[in-house]
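STRUCTURE:
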């Protein structure tokens, strides 16, 4: 019986050890003689569904497929059901021990009970959507919580103390997201007794030594600010704070020195009106810059941003917007990451974005990609959600144009599975000296500049 393949981390020499140690090599299939690097290259030709089917052949190949899945698809979202895990509505239980992100979207006990049948040893991110987290549900996933590093709760409720009934089971937690929703018309949102989650807000009055990223979004009110002041004061390890614009309209965070690396503000609805945007900026200035600390980088999500607003937000390093005019772009010379939510890519803004390193497009054509690649020397990464007009990208042609740009860095194109496989099976070059192509799902969520998961769940 062939022994399971070991991951790269478990090998002393990845280039010398074969995929599996098989007692009788001559009687074993030839594929078992391949090392893991060769297997990764071969399996890169398969779709995710085909990769999972390959792994169902035997226990050894399940380990091989799982290893390749873990290396290739760290970003893919997995939804837990009562009978297994699903990726794009397709059941793929063979990957249970290799997935890194697991999401619960059903309020039923079934999905939680299912988690007890597998170890889910690789899960680092857990997401919960619009459900009641009962003690029985939490009990089912304690073995996952023990290793999890990121927790996201969107519109969830929990009876009892949030720390005692949930957070204390997450010793490695370094990122916490809480989206607050109140749908009951009888709820008095100004009532300080209304908790963000759980029976009260006492969980905010604790230290979380490993917590580096904190997201708080939704129905936030002045009544909560005293506890939030204390929370930030007790947790100086927090380097990244994400919230919505209304947070800065309800009142300043007083007597608390926020010292952040990254401040991320999501604007939606009335936030995008210039009057409110201007007021929010002033609140940020009063709250953080002038009186109580600082942030190194500002990341802004807004539907529109005019040139006057650009001048106010002079610390913008990441901008997520529906569209960007040439006038607005002129003031964004320090911008390092740009995400455009529409398919209207204005080539006139390119010349002013001299420090741009990453570009994220919802819908874009090969012509638009070429304009960025041939015009921005510091660009290193382009993410393409949907390619317009074709399923194949000529990487060699893009590389030729890139070579003509003085001081150009190498650019990696991250594209969806359809474009990636279509380009690969067409025989096109996939990796040149200045332009390469990878799968969009290969971007680790923690490293991606695209926080569209927040947008989708909150906005």
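SEQUENCE:
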């Amino acid at each position: 019986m062939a022994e399971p393949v070991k991951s790269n981390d478990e090998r002393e020499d990845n280039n010398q050890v074969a995929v599996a140690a098989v007692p009788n090599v001559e009687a074993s299939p030839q594929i078992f003689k391949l090392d893991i690097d060769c297997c990764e290259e071969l399996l890169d030709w398969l779709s995710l569904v085909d990769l999972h089917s390959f792994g169902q052949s035997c226990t050894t190949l399940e380990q091989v497929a799982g290893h390749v899945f873990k290396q290739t698809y760290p970003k893919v979202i997995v939804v837990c059901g009562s009978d297994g895990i699903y990726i794009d509505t397709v059941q793929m239980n063979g990957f249970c021990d290799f997935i890194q992100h697991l999401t619960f979207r059903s309020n039923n006990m079934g999905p939680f009970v299912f988690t007890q049948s597998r170890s889910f040893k690789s899960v680092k991110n857990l997401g919960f959507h619009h459900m009641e987290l009962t003690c029985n549900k939490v009990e089912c996933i304690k073995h996952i919580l023990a290793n999890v590093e990121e927790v996201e709760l969107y519109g969830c409720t929990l009876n009892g103390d949030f720390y005692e009934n949930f957070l204390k089971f997450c010793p490695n937690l370094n990122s916490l997201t809480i989206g607050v929703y109140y749908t009951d018309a009888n709820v008095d949102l100004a009532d300080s007794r209304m908790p963000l989650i759980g029976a009260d807000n006492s969980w905010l009055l604790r230290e979380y030594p490993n917590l580096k990223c904190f997201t708080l979004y939704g129905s936030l009110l002045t009544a909560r600010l005293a506890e939030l002041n204390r929370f930030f004061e007790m947790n100086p390890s927090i380097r990244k704070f994400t919230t919505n614009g209304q947070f800065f309209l309800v009142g300043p965070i007083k007597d608390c020195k926020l010292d952040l690396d990254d401040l991320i503000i999501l604007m939606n609805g009335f936030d995008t009106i210039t009057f409110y945007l201007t007021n929010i900026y002033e609140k940020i200035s009063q709250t953080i810059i002038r009186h109580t600390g600082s942030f190194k980088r500002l990341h802004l999500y807004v539907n529109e941003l005019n040139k006057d607003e650009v001048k106010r937000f002079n610390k913008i390093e990441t901008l997520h917007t529906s569209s960007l005019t040439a006038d607005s772009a002129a003031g964004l010379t320090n911008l390092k990451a740009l995400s455009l939510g529409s398919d209207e890519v204005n080539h006139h803004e390119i010349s002013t974005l001299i420090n741009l390193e990453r570009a994220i497009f919802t819908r874009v054509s090969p012509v638009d990609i070429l304009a960025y690649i041939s015009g921005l020397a510091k660009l290193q990464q382009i993410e393409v959600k949907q390619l317009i007009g074709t399923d194949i990208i000529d990487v060699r042609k893009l590389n030729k144009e890139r070579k003509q740009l003085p001081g150009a860095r190498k650019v990696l194109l991250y594209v969806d599975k359809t474009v990636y496989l279509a380009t690969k099976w067409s025989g096109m070059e996939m990796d040149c000296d200045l332009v390469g192509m990878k799968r969009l799902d290969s971007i680790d969520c923690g490293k991606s500049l695209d926080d569209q998961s927040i947008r989708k769940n909150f906005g």
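REMARK: The two ends are 52 Å apart (CA to CA).
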